[in-house]
């Protein structure tokens, strides 16, 4: 029986590829207005045909071909769960200028140095421009091949000729297929290009890395099917004012999705940062008021960052300025301090920031923010060598946070002498506190913010602190 085909009218979103049988003004998937237009959809009924390979018991399937190989970049291997898997399709997305091309050029060079042929295809730059960056970052090697192409058929021809073990396409939105309607970067073009490259990766056992653009709200541009086609989706992020970069796994068929890689971008390229804590903790010659060190979790990695607070003179229109911390959580912490620790902060200018461009959005950093604010208000330093971790409730209670043993172990490894943490439920019989030792560090379990302020000597009715020595 011949394959039966039938055309029926349908409507497709030009932003994300969502389809519907009737026209609507707003896309039901990406919520974009005016992006749904009529398109022809071909439906087919296909009979059984020849198979590529016979089905075998799962225990007889060889796994040697899918063994991960190191990329030469330790932090990338950490995020991927061991390294680059042959035949894997990886999508790397990030904002313009964050360092995606620099990172992948370093990965390509490291792979070439291990005597594995690598092909770097660029559609955004000329080959000469990429060569200039390779000279600057010492990424030139005989096993690293480079080509500038924007046509899909030419890209496939390059793959046939070079036969690489690693393929980098920068970027998938710049490659177009001549026999597909639309411009490069459109829904139809991205679908066809990505599907063809993934098929090539699977059939030729080539590790393929696709660079993807992002929209203004940080999501990957193009149809959502792109994320379903690939095996791994990575997000490369960082502040343009900081050289620090984070690589996160959003989807990973070969490893964990809660792992984070740390990098530092410089004039000589990009390098992995195995211990990033030093970037976010300032080493003061003398203790200063308004500082406290917090411990946040980036994936499964504990990371220490210093929080700084400044409480300025009372003003008619008080300002609240934050950098690196959630402004709404800072406002909540200030309200709790005013209600339960008798610190009058509503008339003062308040400034709260992190050191080194760190971003702290975890509730576990509430306690460090509270200590920094109280220290700045009183004009007195917090105890030297103290670190704080805990969530602050609206009733003034301190709540437990996840992965507390890992946080304490990291703080002890870096030489901190004291740690303030929330008391476990039922561990105290009253408003007091308990003490214990963890890896040579004294851990103080505190039940509420009032007990913490009394412990640190930050209790009292203060509207603004006088300068020290007055």
Topology:
Layout: E1 4-13, E2 19-20, E3 36-45, H1 74-80, E4 89-94, H2 100-113, E5 118-122, H3 127-136, E6 144-148, H4 152-162, E7 166-170, H5 187-204, E8 207-212, H6 225-229, E9 232-237, E10 244-252, E11 260-266, E12 269-272, E13 291-298, E14 301-314, E15 320-323, H7 327-340, E16 348-354, H8 366-378, E17 386-388, E18 391-392, E19 398-399, H9 404-413, E20 418-422, E21 434-438, E22 441-446, H10 449-456
Parallel strand pairs: 4-8, 4-9, 5-6, 5-7, 7-8, 13-17, 15-16, 17-20, 20-22
Antiparallel strand pairs: 1-2, 1-3, 9-10, 10-11, 11-12, 13-14, 14-16, 18-19, 21-22
Helix pairs in contact: 7-8
Mean pLDDT equals: 86
Q: What name is given to the CATH topology of the largest domain?
A: Rossmann fold
Which regions have little confidence, pLDDT < 50, spanning 5+ residues?
A: 1-6, 426-431, 461-470
Q: What is the domain total for the residues?
A: 3
According to CATH, the homologous superfamily of the largest domain is P-loop containing nucleotide triphosphate hydrolases
Describe this structure in words.
- The chain has helices spanning about 75-80, 100-115, 125-135, 150-160, 185-205, 225-230, 325-340, 365-380, 405-415, 450-455; strands spanning about 5-15, 20, 35-45, 90-95, 120, 145-150, 165-170, 205-210, 230-235, 245-250, 260-265, 270, 290-300, 300-315, 320-325, 350-355, 385-390, 390, 400, 420, 435-440, 440-445.
- About 40% of the residues are buried.
- It contains ten helices and 22 strands.
- α7 (about 325-340) crosses α8 (about 365-380).
- The strands form four sheets. The chain has a nine-stranded mixed sheet, sandwiched between helices. An eight-stranded mixed sheet has the order 15-16-14-13-17-20-22-21. A three-stranded antiparallel sheet has the order 2-1-3, with no helix packed on it.
- The model is unreliable at about 1-5, about 425-430 and about 460-470 (pLDDT under 50).
- The protein is about 25% helix and about 30% strand.
- The chain has about 475 residues and is α/β, with parallel strands linked by helices.
- It has three domains: about 5-40; about 65-275, 3-Layer(aba) Sandwich (Rossmann fold), CATH 3.40.50.300; about 280-455, Ribosomal Protein S5, domain 2.
